[in-house]
Amino acid sequence: MKNKNNKNNIAEFNLLQGGKGYLEDFISEIVEILEDTELELVNLQMYPENKDCINSIYYNFNAIKGLSGLIDKPLCNKTAVLTEELLDIVRKNNVPVSRNIINYVLDSVKIIRKFCTETTVETNEAETHIQNLAMSVKTLLKDYQETDFEEDIFYRKDPLNEPALREKETDAQDIIKGIRMHKIRNIQSSDQYVKIPLEKLDQIIDIIQKVEKIHSSVKNEAALRFGSNDSLTVESTRSYYLINDVKNILKELRMVTFQQAFQKLTRSVCSFIEENHLEVKFSTMGENVEADKEFADKIATPLGELIKLVLSKSDTGPKNNRTNNVEVLAYEENGLVHIDIISDMALDPAELKRDPGYTEVLEKLNSLSCRTTLEYDPEGRIKLSVTSTK
């Protein structure tokens, strides 16, 4: 037994001493899992009884728990452990997914992301959240499992009689199991995938474009010297088109749908509507329209800010037998991607344009090579059109 423990300790020591590169890999993996979790939470809000969503989020936190144990951030790890425990009780006991439970998980995502992406983090927020999580777990254990909170292996009572987390040793097998579960759940078929950073993909595209330019010169020179029917000219032309095909395929790899962007947008806007008690229905269309990945990833934030600004300047009070609506529509026209924000609420365009926030949002959209127009559609509704000019 002693030799086995020594072996595990050596393995853990080597893993932790792997250097900055390993640490960055762990943090990058956590951030990626958090992004997936946010998308699952959007689906869970819409369909609270979806057990697949609950299980997916649970296994995400299972993976985060293992990884966070390796980055020397105890509060981050405690948050992950408690959130996983909370979700485990929910999924095993068919606990109704309330707004409070979703908020707890969202706050956990927010706090863990801060620990992974910010150099300094205010610990009071994390400690308060951990205490709230622990109390929630305690309540659910009593209500649904009739388990004494003090006897649960994850917890103890501190001198102030507050629930606190016991320190748990990092188990490499738990980490591996969690990561594998996360990857398995993201494979929808027998196909296998390799992740390529966009920077590397752009480098390959740049090289292909240079080769294409050189090959075009060779092709034209061959045609001038030997004629268009010469075998060298014919083969040069054929290989030129093959190079062009490779370039187009590589560019296609950069294309993604707006599905994830619109899910993030929906989460942000609906939270704003709920927090401000607005009588507004929000919807999106065109999630399957494709755009460059970098554009699709970045567009959700300024769109959300623009919609919130429109809502804050509009008359959102209840109407006679009519619901206030804001819809976002994405479509492709003449080779360009268009995103329309359409509102049927009363709004003074001049007042909107005078707001400093409107100018700031336009600057963000301009940095993404977007053109923005404000007009009324044929039905008299306000329409903000954002067009990618790339």
In brief:
The protein has helices at residues 2-16, 20-46, 51-68, 74-92, 99-117, 123-145, 172-185, 198-226, 231-253, 259-275, 293-313, 349-354, 356-367, and strands at residues 155-157, 163-165, 255-257, 280-285, 290-292, 324-333, 336-343, 370-376, 382-388. The protein is an alpha+beta fold and 390 residues long. The chain has three domains: 2-185, HPT domain (Four Helix Bundle (Hemerythrin (Met), subunit A), Up-down Bundle); 198-253; 256-388, Histidine kinase-like ATPase, C-terminal domain (Heat Shock Protein 90, 2-Layer Sandwich).
Structure in words:
The chain has helices spanning 2-16, 20-46, 51-68, 74-92, 99-117, 123-145, 172-185, 198-226, 231-253, 259-275, 293-313, 349-354, 356-367, and strands at residues 155-157, 163-165, 255-257, 280-285, 290-292, 324-333, 336-343, 370-376, 382-388. The protein has 390 residues and is an alpha+beta fold. The chain has three domains: 2-185, HPT domain (Four Helix Bundle (Hemerythrin (Met), subunit A)), CATH 1.20.120.160; 198-253; 256-388, Heat Shock Protein 90. The strands form three sheets. It has a five-stranded mixed beta sheet with strand order 4-6-7-9-8, covered by helices on one side. Strands 1-2 form a two-stranded antiparallel ribbon. α3 packs antiparallel against α4 (74-92). The protein is globular and about 85 Å long. The protein starts with a helix and ends with a strand. Residues 1-19 and 147-171 have low confidence and may be disordered.
